[in-house]
Write a structure and sequence with these properties.
- The protein has a single domain, classed as Vaccinia Virus protein VP39 (Rossmann fold).
- It is about 30% helix and about 20% strand.
- It contains six helices and seven strands; from the N terminus they run ααβαβαββαβαββ.
- It has helices at about 1-10, 15-25, 35-50, 60-65, 105-110, 125-130, and strands spanning about 30, 50-55, 75, 90-95, 115-120, 140-145, 150-155.
- Strands 3-2-1-4-5-7-6 form a seven-stranded mixed sheet, with helices on both faces.
- The longest helix is centred in the N-terminal third of the chain and has 12 residues, at about 35-50.
- The N and C termini lie far apart (about 35 Å).
- About 35% of the residues are buried.
Length: about 160
């Protein structure tokens, strides 16, 4: 039972991920691959002729994602997140990579490039791990999906998110 509960917690971002994908256009950035996000984003990108750029810092998750490469997905293994080539325009970005001390560093790098940024694990209790309180002020609009734990949030400097 414990495994099922943890798998469900890994998928709480799915409703918002799909909704934001539908609202966006252009290339998709995924920071941190996973069972749910990578499969869903691959499927959506293939159906809508968009390119998915996935960056992964864990060799285990990178190898798992490489088992089923797709022509519309560019997968990059990252040894140092500072070297990840992410400062460019994105239709949407999904932030769920490991390394608790990285998300609040990497999100500002794309704040003025990504039309929408979907961020996983944003409930207040997670701030001690992910330090999101350091980045919220960088965005003009924010929406928190609170129907299940962990929360997922969307931020944007380009779009009003009150309609989500």
């Amino acid at each position: 039972m414990k495994r099922k509960r943890s798998m469900v917690r890994m998928a709480t971002h799915v409703p918002l991920l799909v909704r934001v994908f539908e609202m966006s256009e252009g290339d998709v950035l995924e920071m941190g691959t996973g069972y749910f996000s990578t499969l869903i984003l691959r499927w959506l990108c293939e159906m809508h002729d968009r390119t998915l750029y996935s960056f992964e810092g864990s060799r285990k998750w990178y190898d798992r994602a490489m088992k089923k490469p797709k022509p519309f997905q560019k997968l990059t293994y990252v040894e140092n997140w500072d070297d990840a080539d992410i400062e460019r325009p994105w239709g949407m970005a999904f932030i769920d990579h490991g390394g608790n001390n990285r998300r609040h560093v990497d999100i500002p790098r794309i704040a003025d490039y990504a039309q929408y940024i979907v961020i996983h694990d944003t409930e207040p209790e997670s701030d001690k791990s992910y330090h999101y309180s350091k980045i919220w002020h960088l965005f003009k609009s924010r929406y928190d999906y609170k129907k299940c734990l962990p929360w997922t949030s969307v931020v944007s400097n380009f779009h009003d998110l009150s309609n989500l």
